[in-house]
Amino acid sequence: METTQPRRCLILFGAPGSGKGTQAKLLKGLLGWAHISTGDMLREHVAAKTELGLRIDSAMKSGSLIPDEVVNMLVDERIRREDCQEGFILDGYPRTVPQADLLVRTMRASGIAPVVVHLKVDYNIIVARLASRRLCSQCGQLYSVASNAPIVTESCDYCGGKLITREDDKPEVIWKRLETYDNQTFPVLYFLLGAGYPSHDFDGSDGSPQVIAGRIVQLLLG
Q1: For the chain, how far is it from start to end, CA to CA, in angstroms?
Q2: I need a surface site. Which of 59, 79, 101, 183 has the fewest CB within 10 A?
Q3: Pairing between strand 142-144 and 7-14?
Q4: pTM score, whole prediction
Q5: Which candidate in 7, 78, 129, 133 is catalytic?
Q6: Which pLDDT score is estimated for 4?
Q7: Is 78 a catalytic residue?
């Protein structure tokens, strides 16, 4: 009898600045799965200056979390698309227990089999990493003045746009984001474990992003 393989889902879990976004992009190329970034979806609304975008912008600048109903709506619509049928990577979701509760119910109803990868990084490393980050104001390319600096200071190598520091990458906002993560997001890990999802810890500062991605792929496919 022919059996249908369940859709695969990788939940990348970790504090802001732990490397979830970088790993998601690398793993998308290695696995061929869709990359779903709630941060990217939210910033698209901010850039478009929609009514929803104005609410999101205010919350992001203060380091607060976006309301669950907003994020849930965006993610639920996204995972229904065709490019998610083979598998998908969740980057930055779920961030609260109510979000996780909705996700678990959605996964069970859809026959999706998630695996959690927890990227662990010391908070002092995270603050230094994020505070050195620069964003091109025109094309969105990310740089690090510590490890991936542009050829011309404060100018994008690709389009020449001005590099800026995002409001949520300022040290005082980073520490607020980490405090919010400890209080509201870290409990999500225990919720997912309670739902029976396998979880695996990876040191997000042990090796290059490519090496860490290789370890994750070996876990998923090995």
Answers
A1: 25
A2: 183
A3: unpaired
A4: 0.81
A5: 133
A6: 56
A7: no
